[in-house]
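Kindly draft a sequence, keeping tokens residue-aligned:
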Amino acid sequence: MADGATTGRGASLGARFAMAKFRPTTLPTTLVTRFVLHDRLTEGAGQRLTVVVGSAGAGKSVLLSSWAVARPPGVTSWLSCDEADAELRVRDRAREQALQLRAAEWFESAGDMRRAARHFLAAQQADRALALLQDRVVPDFLHDPAIPAALDLSTVDPSLLADAPDRLLALATDLLLSGHAARGGEYLDLLDRVQPPIRPESRLAARLAAMRSFHYAQIGQLDEAVGEALAARAIQERTRLQDEWNAAVPLILLRIYPCLEDLQAVEREAAAALAMPELTEPAKLVLVPSAQALAWFESGRLAEAARAARAADEDARRLGFDQHFFAVDYLRVLAGLALERRDLDTAEQLAERVLTITERRRPIFEFLALLDRAGIWASCGQVREALTTISTSRPGRDRVGSAGEGR
């Protein structure tokens, strides 16, 4: 902290704020010391990072303060901050980077590569961050229901990645999977200009085609999405690639073919996905049956759609994927089924859940959810509101290309 900072009335707000961050929480007079937890914290002090987890108001700060007070003088430093605080970076960038590095290494040791990558970026170690993402970004997305915070790209110069196309693709993929379609597409475009060009029969070419397909699908250019997905599959088959990214192709196609009302293709891709030994449990139990449920619902097979959607909902809740992108299709089916039985309140609530997941992140699915909600409002007699929703969603229709035309 800057010399001369005070906490008196004449001190600046910034100085008083900074002092508060470097002081432990004031202990209550009725404090009951939790010696067992103190012992665990002392054991953790010998590690690079120890994380104390608890809900708001559980007493985490009081526990740490009481432990710090009980330790010998000079062996414990205190810093309190949250994501909204930029002051730490201004006042002690070296310390912040050291903390970010320790967090990154802890997440890496725990196998959480996407979060580790974000902390490596914050620690100014972009190379280590992108090396982690290179192979793990797609498998981790298929395993983990939590979407990490957006990548801080201020430390990454995309032009410097031209000599490392694998890492450039990893960066684009993370952006796309996190719901940043426009930015992710820009990074994909940079791969067209790398020298030497990407070998057409390579693992990288197959991965690039798969992510181009995903990008096209997100913005509603469905014919292009199908073409890129089939191109990726052809490379995989010709080169006999064994890659954890291979499952991406049928899973992407499973989100496209219901929009194209191609039930046979949905069944074919569902069978292909389920036959893959590397397919994750969430994809197998949530994404695949959700796509099937949507296709069956659109084709009038309501009983089958209801069974599949309810099973997917149960598994999604158990696995923590009920607020994930994977949940969109089965939630739309459940909303449609509620509308069929005139349970308009439930239908609207489910449509709003879809919008919460997709808004500003998944253009094609946000647009379809807006249309679903408009249909529900029209059924309630709120025709003007329904027409307003369709009118205000026109920019979304422009973003999602040809997919909106049939709707």
